Amino acid sequence: MAVEQEVEPTASQSEAILEVRNLQTAFYTDRETIRAVDGVSFDVVPGRTVGIVGESGSGKSVTARSLMRLIDSPGQILQGSSIRFTERGTVRAFAEKFPKRTVDVGKLADKHDPAVLLERPDVDANPRTFGKRDAAEVGLAEILAAGYADDLGIIDDTDCVFVTEGSTDDPTAGFVEVTRTSGEAKRLMRGGRIGMIFQDPLTSLNPVYTVGNQIKESLRLHQGLRGKKATEEAATLLRAVGIPDARRRLKEYPHQFSGGMRQRAVIAMALACEPEVLICDEPTTALDVTIQAQILDLLEEVQEERDLGIIFITHDMGVIADITHRVNVMYAGEIVETAGVEQLFANPKHPYTQGLLRSIPGQQAGEKLETIDGQVPTPNEKATDCRFAPRCPKAFEDCEKVHPESVSVDEADVDHTAACLLYPEELSRADAVEYHRQRGADE
Amino acid sequence: MSRWRYFGLRLLLTIPILFLAMTLVFMITRMGPLDPVTAILGPEASGGASEDIRQRLGLDLPLWRQYIDFMVGLLTFDLGQAWVAAQRGTPVTALIAERAPRTIWLGLWAIMLPIFIGVPLGFYAGLRSNTFGDWIASFLGIVWQAMPNFWLGIMLLAVLRQTRPGNQFDFLPDWYELGPTTESLLGTPDLSFIAIDWFLLVPIPTMFDFFGFLTALKQITPAALVLGSALMVSEMRIGRTAVLEQVNANYVETAKAKGLKGRTIVWKHIFRNASIPLVPVLMSEISILIGGSVIIEVVFGINGIGQLFYQAVLQGDLPVAGSLAFVFAVITLFFNVLQDLLYTLIDPRVGFEQ
Question: Closest chain B residue to A204 measured between Cα atoms?
Fold first, then answer.
């Protein structure tokens, strides 16, 4: 079953503006189903950077594209996945703009009894979702979160804004369910709330339009700026991302920009939409090292200025150490370890993370660089074992029988979790295995 | 602006090319196997009569003199007079002026097919790649392209003829009675529905007859259909590939990530990029249209410059054949320049040196 993080409401998590829960994205081809992202959960907090790190093929980019709803057929975000945008201003704006697509969860709970709903014979309520729990314990919010509300017919196809207070006029708490957005709501979310910059700045700008044209396009779309005002604002943005002579540069075409300048322009374009969350999908991989450092500095700068929540995706551990506050280590579609950045580097728990950190070049001069043998497998089915076990130096027999759930590594540090049968540390090995088995069965 | 400097350079380059083309025309007509004297007097010509003609045509002069006369003639649009048969003595310029509008009329409607059917169909297929619609369009396109022009022309004529009541295809509307009544499928369209005055190189229509326009259009339709069809298919296939290439480009994903509407992405971002590879194909094939019009004009009995060229070559009428070859070269060059212009307008990277 999906990796479910222990959600302890710590201070940082309660401020989260984007909550990803049990995200599953699969690609269906004639030959096989590829579960590229298989139960990923994490939070994005304003002013902080959450890193997603892993080898090629671990599902980092698919995670990012899922958040942007950029997954096209034959890919699909599976039912039960939840991407909640909880930033208040956004929820209010969406509730105002789409009153017909807004659901008052409070009113809905008055109307429907979860216990009755789950007894309905026409609904295949996945027993694994609610486990052996008594129907009375399951709240309506959970049913919504699990994605069954649609099947049950208690919400419409297009509903995507959920508010919890009685009145929809002033929703102080609630969320926009990104996986349910469509049409205009989806487009407003893209760019306007969640921006994204891509790996290759050389090709991510349209070669036949000026940089100014492309920035102004964003400004018009999300801020309604046109004409002179838009030009003014676009120049300000270019200056803000460190491009000198902005006025003239606006009139130039992408091919007249160097690689680093282009990435700056792409960042300016993303910022022009005024997003709350910025996804950076390997933004520095295609750039040389000095430019890399400049771009990372720039991202930190704009983050501070705008209180941006950044999701930073990379396979470069050095960059992760440099820019992120919290790190999620991905392997074969799952998050195998998550911790604060210092904690992760000082005290990596999962054997995969340990392997990754050992294979950073340049740490011990003269010694042969360690590698992790083998390749990331392509997950075709739900995991029933540990996907890393075949490559894991610490694997034991049970690793091939029990799927490790994401658990706190020890009692003292609930913020540091790993999906490995070796943990929690305080339990004996047999007890730990049993603990994981039990958790898996419950969910 | 380096784009425009690049364009200026290309424009300048056409001058030596034009000279080269003129020289080639001269060499082919004067040194080729055609003997104008035989052409004029017949194979038995000899003696004084043939000497007389030689002198009159200037063929007794040294070759360099002939060359200079020829070049000066072309440049001043003094293209000489036709030598043979019915048009003997008519200035070539008059011949061309009389027949060129018919060929232009044919080419104009033929080019509508690739532009308004081929390109949109290709873009459609590219945007919906690997769907049923794409599959049908691509399959029919290949079948269509496999049919040679002249064969297609003959088939079309055969079918249209049979649409008369009592014939094999009379379940189709009678072509002869459809719209303006026409006597024959073949023949030259009557372009007198429009009168044009030239004012400082700007054509100003002084008269327009709509019914005459329709008749002329109907007359040219079968020929234009056949002439444009091959081009239509190649534009379709290139358009499809071009769009497919752009749809998966990174900038499209960036545009999506901005929150742009699908329609804006297609019309603003994809189409302009996809049209870049279409320009040279369209332009070079317009030049081929002129060559193709020779066959089509013969098949459809249209008295245009294609047919004029065909007859002139057969009859050894050197001034006409040479002048037309020159005209074709000028047209080809013109479209090359037009292509450079379009390139410069569409693609800002033109002329960019790194």
Answer: B251
**A/B interface, count of CB pairs below 8 Å:** 75
Domain boundaries, chain B: 2-34+77-346
From the number of C-beta atoms within 10 Å of its C-beta (0-12, 13-18, 19+), residue B228 rates as buried
B115 DSSP 8-state letter: I
- pTM passes above 0.95: no
Distance CA A413, CA A42 (A): 17
How many CB atoms neighbour CB A41 within 10 A? 20
Residue A85, helix vs strand vs coil: strand
The interface pTM score, or ipTM, of the predicted complex is 0.83
Q: How close does chain A come to B247, measured CA to CA in Å? A: 12
Give me the residues paired with residue A174 across strands.
Answer: A163
Window 399-428 of A: residues touching B by CB (8 A cutoff) are: none
* Structural contact between residues B106 and B295, judged by C-beta atoms closer than 8 angstroms: no
Beta bridge partner(s), residue A280: A197, A312
- Kindly list the averaged pLDDT for each block of 10 residues, start to end, along chain A of length 443: 41 71 91 90 93 90 92 86 87 86 79 71 52 62 69 76 64 78 89 90 90 92 88 92 91 90 91 93 86 91 92 91 93 93 92 89 71 84 88 88 87 85 86 86 68
Tell me which chain A residues have a C-beta less than 8 angstroms from the C-beta of B273. Answer: 206-208
CB contact under 8 A, A203 and B348: no
DSSP three-state, residue A196: strand
Provide the CATH topology of domain B2-34+77-346.
Answer: MetI-like fold (1.10.3720)
